Each structure stands twice: as structure tokens, then as C-alpha cells.
Amino acid sequence: MKKSSVIIVMITFVLSVVLVGIFGMKMISYNTRIYVKAINPTSVTTSANISGVQLAGSMEENSYMLVLPYFDGLIVRIDYELDPADATEDTVELTVPDPADREVVETQGLNIYAKREGSARLKYRAKDGGGAEIDVTLYFLSPEEYYSLSR
Questions:
Q1: CA distances in angstroms from 109 to 16, 24, 40, 54, 81, listed in the order given
Q2: 127, 47, 76, 137: which is closest to 101 by C-alpha?
Q3: Could you tell me whether strands 133-141 and 63-69 are parallel, antiparallel, or unpaired per DSSP bridges?
């Protein structure tokens, strides 16, 4: 090989490395996970179509309260939004951490079935491992007591 051929190959190699280094594509991981940062409750739906039901924020961060009249067969669903909306895994788990509260409510999926009057604490937790969660305390009052409070 001639000297000029070797020099041209070396210059081409060095220029290609420099050009790819400057103008090349940024490396992006294909396994990028976006974690849920916050769960924000939006609305409450009940099987008894109780009007004016709203979640009230508590003094504690990520804690809410909800007061409802107890009716036999009452089903409650608390809808929510996730922040960010494009999280990789957008499933949320609803649990009743205290065994004593399981005497007041029962959960199936995101539906809450009221068993009797009383209070129960629920925990909504994102299943992506990011640690986003909220606590909701439900108070079920007798209908007479509930409607006397709203006056």
C-alpha cells in the first residue's frame, strides 16, 4: 500500500469519529420508565346517586375525608387522575390496611362496598414502585344524621 492510501484512510477514520461525536444521535434508553408522582382524586360516584358529595382535603398531605349517608348496598367509587398522565404503569391499587376497617367496608377492584355505619381508612397506591399514594377516610353516618349536618 502506498503511503498516501494509508494517510487518506486514517484521515477519513478520524473525521468520521469526530463528525459522529459532534452530530451523532443522542443515546436514549429504550426501557425508560415514567413513575406516577401524584394521585389526584377528581370525583365521587355512589350507587344511591347522593348529590353534592365531595372529597375534603385534610391537614395531612395526600389525605382526604369523605362523609356519606349509609344505605344498605351502598357502593362508592372515587375516580382519580394520575400525574403525569403518561406514566409507564398507570394502575392503582386500593387497599384497606386496618383489619378493623374491613368490618365497615369491602373493596373489589376500585369499588367500595359499605357494610355498616362507621369509619374506614383506604389507601390508594400506584403499583409502579414510585411511591405515590393517598389516604381517604370514609365516614358512613345514618341518613338522619347526615342530612341534619348538611342543613
A1: 57, 48, 18, 21, 16
A2: 137
A3: parallel
pLDDT tens for residues 7-42?
998 999 998 888 888 777 776 667 788 899 999 999
- Residues 74-118 have pLDDT tens digits of 999 999 999 888 888 889 999 999 999 899 999 999 999 999 999
For CA atoms 64, 148, 73, 118, the dihedral sign is positive
Residue 151 has pLDDT above 60, yes or no: no
Cell output for 94: 386500593
| Amino acid present at 56 | A
Distance CA 141, CA 135 (A): 19
Q: Is the pTM higher than 0.70?
A: yes
Strands (E) in the chain, as ranges, are 38-46, 56-57, 63-69, 75-83, 92-95, 105-108, 111-114, 118-126, 133-141
Owner of C-alpha cell 436514549: 28
